[in-house]
Amino acid sequence: MLRCFCAFLLVSLSIQVLGDDRPLRVFTWPEYFDPEMADRFQSETGIELEFIYYDNDEIRDQIMAETQGFGFDVILIDDAEAGSYRAQNWIIPLQADKLSHLSDHGNQWQLRAQDAVDHVVPYGWGYYGVLYRQDQLEQPPAHWSDLFRDDAPWAGAVQMPAQVSELLPIALMAKGLRPFIPDTDAIKTAEQALINQQPLVSSYGMPDLEADETKLAQGEALVAVTYNSDAMFLMEEDDRLAFTIPKGGNIQWVDFWTISARSEHIDGAYQFLDFTLRPDVTAANVQYHYSATYSKPAIALLPQSMQQDDRLFPESADSFYVYQHPDRETIRALMRLINTLDVD
């Protein structure tokens, strides 16, 4: 039986020394692993899986800082924080000879892993866009700057991400600026834009993956910034929704599996990582969560409609910006935004 717990409940418990027969604990996003593949892993290996979920990257990072990774075996992280996790010794270097399917994923993902390439394996990738109510809008936002217009038909009904590390790059692109390592003037411009945008925003946070529970479905939002993968998932459930990629630039994100430096289930963690890299498992997960993969053997197993879907594998992906770890000035700006914007 697949057991799932909220991260905050796990962190509130005291960490105990557990035997090898305990479940393999996977710290990840919700709705991001095909339950059938989880059952298959358990059937093939005899290792029970226990998924612990976080709601956003900043919560994950806070929990890791508080626990140092105790209680987790496998941790899903993104390219923005991979180097930081390595530097803080929260994750271990991986042995390639225990990852027989890693070569299927090519080398492109290594450019995204930067200085943590030996500590991670790729899981999924995607980018940002805007999900909107096509039944209520004649035209969607054409440029990121349209989300900041007080005369737009969606003014007051905009849903923006809750993570300031995502808000600031979007505001920079809206102003025609590079989203990473901005200078002082660019940071001030983007900060003010986000402050001025507040009356236009109905809520901060990514759309709920329960279609009936989204702000869009309930009429509280007309447009929502989200990941392309979540948008594709929700459009399958609600035909009133459509997806657009605003002009002005975009950011490619990549999610990686890692093994916690505090794991007491290393062998099981390696088995899980190699399992996720298999073409059949990768293809099943792509069809479940709509995040793209670098694995060509897995792509070949996808339905033709998915292989040719530009929302999943956009031709423009090579021009997308790559996450860069913020410098000190940007970190200070992010902290100011946390205190200024109502993003709880």
UniProtKB/TrEMBL annotation:
This is Spermidine/putrescine-binding periplasmic protein. Residues 1-19 form the signal peptide. GO terms for molecular function: polyamine binding. It comes from the Bacteria. The keyword Repressor does not apply. One of its GO terms (cellular component) is periplasmic space. It is found in: Periplasm. It comes from Reinekea blandensis MED297. InterPro entries: SBP, Sperm_putr-bd. GO terms for biological process: polyamine transport. Keywords: Periplasm, Signal, Transport. The keyword Transport applies.
